[in-house]
Specification:
The chain has helices spanning about 1-15, 15-35, 40-60, 65-85. It is an all-alpha fold. The chain has one domain (about 1-85). α2 runs antiparallel to α3 (about 40-60), α2 crosses α4 (about 65-85) and α3 (about 40-60) runs antiparallel to α4. The model has no long low-confidence stretch (mean pLDDT about 85).
């Protein structure tokens, strides 16, 4: 239910260039990080998750200026990984 509400908020209030990679990070990077957490250390999992999220933002922002593409990718990937680091029940 929380995922559905989060996707609805993303699609209603944010532009497509932000909403799409955020949804992809939640659908692809989050499960990968969850599965790898059992086998690898936290630092390795967060590094892999960061790289996956950064790649997802890069392919979404590929038409932007180079500096903007990397800035958005770093900020977006950092936010996605920070959301995974802090577990809220």
């Amino acid at each position: 239910m929380y995922f559905g509400v989060g996707v609805l908020i993303l699609l209603l209030f944010f532009p497509q260039q932000i909403a799409v990679p955020c949804i992809l990070c939640a659908c692809i990077a989050d499960p990968i990080m969850g599965e790898l957490r059992n086998n690898l250390g936290k630092k390795q999992v967060y590094t892999i998750g960061f790289l996956i999220c950064m790649f997802l933002f890069l392919i979404t922002w590929h038409k932007a200026d180079m500096w903007m593409m990397f800035l958005v990718s770093i900020v977006g990937a950092s936010g996605a990984v920070l959301g995974e680091v802090k577990k809220l029940w």
